[in-house]
Amino acid sequence: MEKNIKFPVVDLSKLNGEERDQTMALIDDACQNWGFFELLNHGIPYDLMDNIERMTKEHYKKFMEQKFKEMLRSKGLDTLETEVENIDWESTFFLRHLPQTNLYDIPNMSEEYRAAMKDFGKRLENLAEELLDLLCENLGLEKGYLKKVFRGTKGPTFGTKVSNYPPCPNPEMVKGLRAHTDAGGLILLFQDDKVSGLQLLKDGVWVDVPPLKHSIVINLGDQLEVITNGKYKSVMHRVMTQKEGNRMSIASFYNPGSDAEISPAQSLVGKESEYPSFVFDDYMKLYAGVKFQPKEPRFEAMKNAAATKDANPVAAVETF
Ligand code: OGA
Ligand code: NI
């Protein structure tokens, strides 16, 4: 990692004081040049985060770890002698909060864990909407603009991917999660404060997203790049595997509703936009098959689909 690279850390409590302007500028710079920033004093109670962490780790030990090990054995992955490029070394499950929750359909969650996840999800949803308005302010868009675009007719899609990245005996042979940009809107990540692994690609260099206790890491998905006409960027990121330690990561995706119409905001478009306009669900159908490829061909494909009115029929897969 280059020495002069300083990962943007934003103290949200400073929005209420003298340093508001600098804080807004820091967020704007991060959205333009990093696609990522890390939040402290974000208003989500630290004891709630501690409980979520404890229960997520217990849940993994009790219900997930054995399954992960069996999966490795059945696929012959317990020892790797050559690089594998089509799998991710992660153990995950998905919670959907909006438009309808599936929290009560997930097996093996204690009532306490479910309740904490529901509370955490609601607070993250509120934080996401607060952040969208900060982005609007920085972009010169009217307050509520992004939230409204994301709403569609059924409200936003909001879900949480609960992941563990177990220790890996051959870290050089496999990624925890292969490099990708996120398809959706705003991603809010509660990551392990001890075991690192998340990296983003900045100016051709992989940079660590440093573990920081009780922080929430924010990153921008492809939709925000489209809506801002490229002023803000979705940035490639990946998770490296580690020899020691199990990395917890709880990533929540605040995305447009399936029928939301996405297009570059008029006021941010000069002569003509390079970016396509589409219905969010059509983008997701395309993304499901090409997640681990660069985003530019996706934008291009959506432009072509609009031109031919053929929205690329690919089977829908639940993916964030
Ligand atoms: C993702 C992702 C990062 C992490 O799920 O899209 O980038 O640290 N996760 O789990
Ligand atoms: Ni991601």
TrEMBL record:
UniProt xrefs under InterPro entries: DIOX_N (IPR026992), IPNS-like_FE2OG_OXY (IPR044861), IPNS-like_sf (IPR027443), Oxoglu/Fe-dep_dioxygenase_dom (IPR005123), Plant_2OG-oxidoreductases (IPR050295)
Coiled-coil residue windows: 110-137
Known EC number: 1.14.17.4
GO biological process: cellular response to fatty acid; ethylene biosynthetic process
Entry-linked PANTHER family: OXOGLUTARATE/IRON-DEPENDENT DIOXYGENASE
Gene: LOC108850553
GO molecular function, one term: L-ascorbic acid binding
Protein name as catalogued: aminocyclopropanecarboxylate oxidase
Pathway(s): Alkene biosynthesis; ethylene biosynthesis via S-adenosyl-L-methionine; ethylene from S-adenosyl-L-methionine: step 2/2
Pfam families cross-referenced by the UniProt entry: 2OG-FeII_Oxy, DIOX_N
Source species taxonomy: Eukaryota, Viridiplantae, Streptophyta, Embryophyta, Tracheophyta
